Amino acid sequence: MNHPEKVEKPFSPSCERNQSVLLEVLKQHLRTDDKQVLEIGSGTGQHAVFFAENLPALLWQTSDIKANHAGIQLWLDEANLNNVQSPIEYEIGKDQWPDIKADLIFSANTLHIIPFEWVKLLIQSMGQNLRKGALVMFYGPFKYQGEFTSASNADFDLWLKDIDPLRGVRDFETIVALMDEQRLPLRQDINMPANNQMLIFERL
């Protein structure tokens, strides 16, 4: 008889390090009538649990590729919160945009992991599906005018491309232009610790 493999609860040290500063940015930019967040690429599930615990008025919807669901669910089960929901299966270019009336789209450290063609598809999907006034927050490293903001980000880009040539730190100007095309202009570019940025867009 085949027994299913036991899934160990995943853990990301970088999530642990950045979650407090990310929470402060969320608190500063959330509006009083914002009720639901859709997280694209929930990864381990750590961010979802931390933010849901600290923002009890928000309903936090996780999403990711199917392979990451079991790990995310372990975090959700342990936290036992009523305002964070089990992950929706969402693989860019394969699955339809989640049927969620989101006030905010949050995505951390995804744009440099997925192929650039998927980045474009993701942004197109946002343009087609987000309601007027919805916010989009992208967190992670970016290049400016083709230049890395630090030597460590340049090294990180090489490391990413060594794993998969389609990965890589994205150009800030390219992302802003793609979002503009979808009527999602940049509202703020916030410097974050460890040479990361938080880019905040709003749907017109």
Short précis:
The protein has 204 residues and is an alpha/beta fold. The protein has helices spanning 13-29, 46-54, 69-79, 116-129, 151-163, 172-181, and strands spanning 36-39, 59-64, 84-89, 104-108, 135-140, 142-143, 170-171, 186-192, 196-202.
- Please estimate the helix content: 25-40%
Which sheet architecture does the biggest sheet show?
Answer: 7 strands, mixed
Which outline best applies?
globular
Enumerate the strands of the largest sheet in spatial order, edge to edge or round the barrel.
Answer: 3-2-1-4-5-9-8
Radius of gyration using CA atoms only: 17 Å
Tally of individual domains: 1
Query: How many DSSP H or I helices?
Result: 6
Strand content: 15-25%
| Structural class by sheet pairing and helices | alpha/beta
CATH fold name, please?
Answer: Rossmann fold
Q: Note the gap between the termini.
A: 56 Å
Rounded average pLDDT: 95
- Series of secondary-structure elements, N-terminal to C-terminal: HEHEHEEHEEHEHEE
InterPro entries: DUF938 (IPR010342), SAM-dependent_MTases_sf (IPR029063)
